[in-house]
């Protein structure tokens, strides 16, 4: 690693002040610390959010589930509140990385980092969540803007995420076996307004699939999902999978997610 200074603020206001002055915010550190060890990242100042108690926690608020940004993956997976209200979200959290990653990684860190193959962004987008920051509230549809890119401004911190509770939801992930990131992951949610389908791992950024949403809003069945043609032209192609393979995975994982949601 390169030399850096380290601070552990006790309040969101102090953390925002440090971030506004140029400090790199440290949440779970599952991406940042690894890149620093490899000398791919060279922040001169770190502001560790782990000392801010108000940023962690899970609570039910009416027909929504509110989860603090510094809540660990393991805590989301183990939460009886999450398992009861949105079991698909608990299931997603339980299969992120390995035990060590789940013990340290955080919801807010994953969403703010917006890795194109991360699991949480698909849940946030499919559930139509609202991302609350120290400055404003941002709808999920407006939050994810590109590869490792979000609508967050400089010095803006995610504080909590509000997830509306759906009628049904499910997440299916085809894992890249080495990293355990999603080669393709599909999160779908059935609500009173229709079905939302979010795909991660297949492109440069998490995205909703309008064709699958339309078909499943009309008929929430695996057969309806299977009948949708998946356009591969904008999908990723690399050593792990071709565009066509990822397109097929989107279809298959959506069919499996519907079957899982109906079980």
Q: Can you walk me through this structure?
A:
The chain is built from twelve helices and 14 strands. Helices cover 35% and strands 25% of the residues. It folds into two domains: 5-164, Uridine Diphospho-n-acetylenolpyruvylglucosamine Reductase, domain 3 (2-Layer Sandwich), CATH 3.30.465.10; 168-262, Enolase-like, domain 1, CATH 3.30.390.50. The strands form four sheets. Strands 4-5-10-6-7 form a five-stranded antiparallel beta sheet. The chain has helices at residues 12-20, 32-37, 73-78, 80-85, 87-94, 99-104, 107-113, 120-126, 140-143, 210-218, 222-226, 243-262; strands at 5-7, 24-26, 45-48, 58-61, 64-68, 130-133, 137-139, 144-146, 149-150, 158-164, 168-175, 182-191, 194-200, 207-208. A hairpin with a 6-residue loop joins strand 11 (168-175) and strand 12. By secondary structure, the chain is α+β, with helices and mostly antiparallel strands. The mean pLDDT is 96.
